[in-house]
Amino acid sequence: MLNANALTIALRELAAEHTSRPGIKVTFISGSPGQIQQQVDAGEKFDLLIMPTPALAALDTDGKLAAGTRRALVRRGHWDLPSARAHPKPDITTPDALRKTLLAQQKITYSDSKTGGLSGINAQKVLQNLGIDDEIKSKLLPHSDGQGLIAKGEADPWPLQCQ
């Protein structure tokens, strides 16, 4: 299975239900959308590919997917990580509340744009729009597996992931 990092934790939990049966094995190749795109472009073989809809549409158009196999898995979602469930729901109801919530975080991770992650660009824009990008810089951990850092307790859950 090739998938973007954002889904790895949930997909591993789903796969665990099926891999407990004899003869079923799931191998995950996870990365940023850009890294997954590079794997596909390099000819990586897969049984299941989970990517953003525009990327899949482009692969379908280029003939890199078996005809008629592309399906919408989700249209919109909210992440509910176990570590996020353990934290109180943050106040992000106004820009000022979001600013205070972010400034109260110890370590914040987001997708590293250098590895092809898309959400990192948006995260940086949010911080700039809130006027706290310089003030919060020392707390930021751009990473290709931010959810892994959160799961290990090395970064706080993003307030937006807790909603």
| Helix percentage | 40-55%
SSE order in H/E notation? EHEHEHHHEHHEH
Distance between the termini: 28 Å
Low-confidence stretches: 76-84
The SS-based structural class is mainly alpha
Which range does the strand content fall in? 5-15%
**Main sheet: which strands, in order across?**
2-1-3
Radius of gyration from the CA trace?
17 Å
Q: Count of helical segments? A: 8
Largest sheet: 3 strands, parallel
Shape: globular
* Overall strand count: 5
Query: Would you tell me the overall average pLDDT?
Result: 78
Give the secondary structure arrangement, pairings included.
Elements: E1 2-4, H1 8-19, E2 29-31, H2 33-41, E3 49-50, H3 53-61, H4 82-85, H5 95-104, E4 108-111, H6 119-130, H7 133-136, E5 140-143, H8 146-151
Parallel strand pairs: 1-2, 1-3, 4-5
Overview of the structural elements:
By secondary structure, the protein is mainly alpha-helical. 40% of the residues lie in helices and 10% in strands. It is built from eight helices and five strands, in the order E-H-E-H-E-H-H-H-E-H-H-E-H. Strand 1 (2-4), helix 1 (8-19) and strand 2 (29-31) form a beta-alpha-beta unit. The radius of gyration is 17 Å and the shape is globular. Residues 76-84 have low confidence and may be disordered.
Key structural traits:
mainly alpha, three-stranded parallel beta sheet, two-stranded parallel sheet, 10% strand, 163 residues
Describe the structure concisely for a colleague.
By secondary structure, the chain is mostly helical. It contains 8 helices and 5 strands, in the order βαβαβαααβααβα.
